[in-house]
Amino acid sequence: MTATMTDAPPPAAPKAAGAPQRSGRSLGQILMIVAGALLLVAAVRMITGSDQLDSSGQVAAALGLAVPIGLAGLAGLWSERAGVVNIGLEGMMILGTFGAGWIGWQTSPWLGLLCGIGFGVLGGLVHAVATITFGVDHIVSGVAVNLLALGATQYLAKLFFADGKASEAGGNPKQSPPADSLPDVTVPGLSDALASLEKHHWFLVSDLAGIIGGLITNLSVVTILAVLLFVGSWWLLWRTPFGLRLRSCGENPIAAESLGVNVYRYKYVAVAVSGGLAGLGGAFLALVTSHTYLEGQTGGRGYIGLAAMIFGNWRPGGLAMGAGLFGYSDALQLRNGGVTVHALLLLLVVLLALLAGWKLYKKAHWQGGISLMTAALVLVWYLFTDEVPSDFVGATPYVVTLLVLSLSAQRLRMPKADGMRYRKGQGK
Q1: Which has the minimum average pLDDT: 21-25, 100-104, 122-126?
Q2: Where are the alpha helices (H) located in 162-252, listed in sequence order?
Q3: Please, which of 34, 287, 288, 328 could form a disulfide with 62 given CB 3.0 to 4.6 Å?
Q4: TM spans, by residue (predicted)?
């Protein structure tokens, strides 16, 4: 018998009944981590006097910057859980920005939102046909989708926004005319009460008031939709038979096929949903952030979303934390500049010291020593300077992302068949 080489992994051995299963952190552990982080930020705010670290304005800005990144990361999660690497998220977001800006200007922002999702789905289906049906390398296909989306939107923008009615309304070859705003939500009474508490700058109380106030004041309906999509994705992928079958396509498609799962269908659904979510992220940028389509509007958020997904270990909760971290650091440097980012250095010192202690406790002496040395260098930087240089301030979000990814790399586990070519019946 001649052995054939395939790109798919061998069938996994069944687990014995009663074998211990790995579980995520419990709710109590998560709450303890959140409480510890809040106490740490409150202490740093009191020591440094930087009240903008957790103000309601800072939290609201961070949330607005985190939503498109989180939606891009959620799009990548859907695709990669089914075994398809989606580097084309950036292109699908670009398609979403154009579709939302184009239709949103001509009709209503709600139809623009739907059109942005539809344009993203179209980009996802192109990627699905190339990778699933024709077996094109996933990275090559994703890069091609990015290039095609960029070129197509640039051409269409010149075609639709450069003359006639669009030009008179404020359009040009690089942007659409403005669309109407989508509604915001504010909790009446509670928002004003929290703002009053925040102004007193009390330890912990004002910090908590600022964070909650930023989350419930002038909240876009698309942000609420994004939160529901995160919760719905977690429930659908981890609590339903559909999700189990879809994730099995990313872990071992041969075993899934042997159990009667239509692997092609589930992969197509996952990549189409991925494109729609990325398109929604692009529509958020066009309709909520700026109210217009702008060339280069995505700014690499599709790639950053992939980084947030990896940081989150291909799970919605961790992904949301990664997107929030990047949004927070980005908002910090955009709103406050070098003075507040300088206060963030002290927070980084404490985190690195805690990490060093944990690594030394786990007998990882080399890693603990590096973390401790880095903490000492950052502390020296903090003590002998009053402000972070502007060049470094602009790079803060990217430095934070790289630092977090490097520190979390050891606990990551991607789907086993992620990115592998699959052909029906290849396991026979």
Answers
A1: 21-25
A2: 164-168, 190-199, 205-216, 221-239, 241-251
A3: 328
A4: 27-47, 59-78, 84-103, 110-132, 138-157, 208-237, 268-290, 339-358, 365-384, 396-414
How many CB atoms sit inside 10 A of residue 372's CB? Answer: 17
Q: Cβ(8)–Cβ(420) under 8 Å? A: yes
Cα distance between residue 92 and residue 172, in whole Å? 22
- Residue holding tokens 């041969």? 254
Query: How many angstroms separate the CA atoms of 70 and 302, rounded?
Result: 9
Contact (CB, 8 A) for 64 and 288: yes
Segment (H or E) for 360: helix 338-361
269-291 burial string, b = 16+ CB within 10 Å, else e? Answer: bbbbbbbbbbbbbbbbbbbbbbb
| pLDDT band per the 50, 70, 90 thresholds, residue 427 | low
Choose among 188, 219, 222, 193: nearest CA to 205. 193
Q: Tell me: pLDDT of 69 over 90.
A: yes
For β-strands 219-220 and 184-185, DSSP reports them as antiparallel
Burial class of residue 393 (count of CB atoms within 10 Å of its CB; 0-12, 13-18, 19+): buried
* DSSP per-residue letters across 286-304: IIIISSS-BTT-STTHHHH
Which range has the worst mean pLDDT, 35-44, 56-65, 331-340, 364-373? 331-340
Contact 120, 95 (CB under 8 A): yes
Q: What is the DSSP letter of 330?
A: H
| Position 6 pLDDT exceeds 60 | no
Residue whose structure tokens are 């509604």: 183
**pLDDT digits 0-9 by tens, 86-96:** 999 999 999 99
